[in-house]
């Protein structure tokens, strides 16, 4: 069964860069791997006590789509050789403290937008 | 404040039917499909409904979704104790961003 495992530092200092990685693993590596053109791969976060916020998505070709409110600070990249994708968020503040989830989105029109598989999430705290 | 508006809480007793609403606008729910997610804290969120009313394989038919105009609903029939969780709606917005609702905490009394 395909799984997404997100990982990264749980504590980041203000003004520094948050970096997380999501490893894609399972028994259907070929059809469900990061190189499949059937999926986008994305990041979503949830600040403490608040709702979910979409950060951005990437497809295997490297095309990215970012939340306009975060676009200036976000980079999502894909590492096909290691079957994983990553998130970088620069100049973090306490407002970036959240549980960060990686997730998979089937390739469909933007009108038909949903994530069908999620990781368990990683809590990242921004504090000095 | 989320652009998609959900009630912060809902409740029901076992066996009852509960409906959670999600209100948006013409640029999101009004022109795009809605998805729904079930989330127990500490676990991975789970897709319940996509394309406004479609269930992924493995999701019980007790869960159903609908959409009308700029609003959508998730209905849970035959409520069970294991349905106690947070529920989120989501939709693409024509301003080129994806939106989630603020979430509804469902309590099974």
Integer-rounded radius of gyration of chain B: 13 Å
What multimeric state do the chains show? Answer: heterodimer
Q: Please write the string of helix (H) and strand (E) elements of chain A.
A: EEEHEEEEEEEE
Largest sheet features of chain B: 6 strands, mixed
Q: Which structural class fits the helix and strand makeup of chain A?
A: mainly beta
Name the average pLDDT of chain A. 90
Label the overall shape of chain A: globular
Strand elements of chain B, count? 9
Structure, described:
The complex is a heterodimer of chains A (128) and B (109). Chain A is mainly beta. Helices cover 3% and strands 48% of the residues of chain A. Chain A has 1 helix and 11 strands; from the N terminus they run βββαββββββββ. In chain A, strands 2, 4, 5, 6, 9, 10 and 11 form a 7-stranded mixed beta sheet that branches. A 4-stranded antiparallel beta sheet of chain A has the order 1-3-8-7, with no helix packed on it. Chain A is globular and about 40 Å long. In chain A, 37% of the residues are buried. Chain B has 109 residues and is mainly β. Helix content of chain B is 0%, strand content 46%. Chain B contains no helices and 9 strands. Chains A and B meet through strand 10 of A and strand 7 and strand 8 of B.
């Amino acid at each position: 069964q395909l799984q997404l495992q997100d990982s990264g530092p749980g504590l980041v200092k203000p003004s520094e860069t948050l970096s997380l990685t999501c490893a894609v693993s399972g028994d259907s590596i070929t059809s469900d791997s990061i190189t499949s053109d059937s999926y986008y791969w994305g990041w979503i976060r949830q600040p403490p006590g608040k709702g979910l916020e979409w950060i951005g998505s990437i497809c295997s070709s490297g095309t990215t789509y970012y939340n306009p409110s975060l676009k200036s600070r976000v980079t999502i990249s894909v590492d096909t050789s290691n079957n994983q994708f990553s998130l970088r968020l620069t100049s973090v503040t306490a407002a970036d403290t959240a549980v960060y989830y990686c997730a998979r989105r089937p390739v469909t029109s933007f009108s038909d937008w949903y994530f069908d598989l999620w990781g368990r999430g990683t809590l990242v705290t921004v504090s000095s | 404040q989320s652009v998609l508006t959900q009630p912060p809480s809902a409740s029901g007793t076992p066996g009852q039917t509960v409906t959670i609403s999600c209100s948006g606008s013409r640029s999101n729910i009004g022109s795009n499909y809605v998805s729904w997610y079930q989330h127990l804290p500490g676990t991975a969120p789970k897709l319940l409904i996509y394309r406004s009313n479609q269930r992924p394989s493995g999701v019980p038919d007790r869960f159903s979704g609908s959409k009308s105009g700029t609003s959508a609903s998730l209905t849970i029939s035959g409520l069970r104790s294991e349905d106690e969780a947070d529920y989120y709606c989501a939709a693409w917005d024509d301003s080129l961003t994806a939106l989630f609702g603020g979430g509804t905490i469902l309590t099974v009394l």
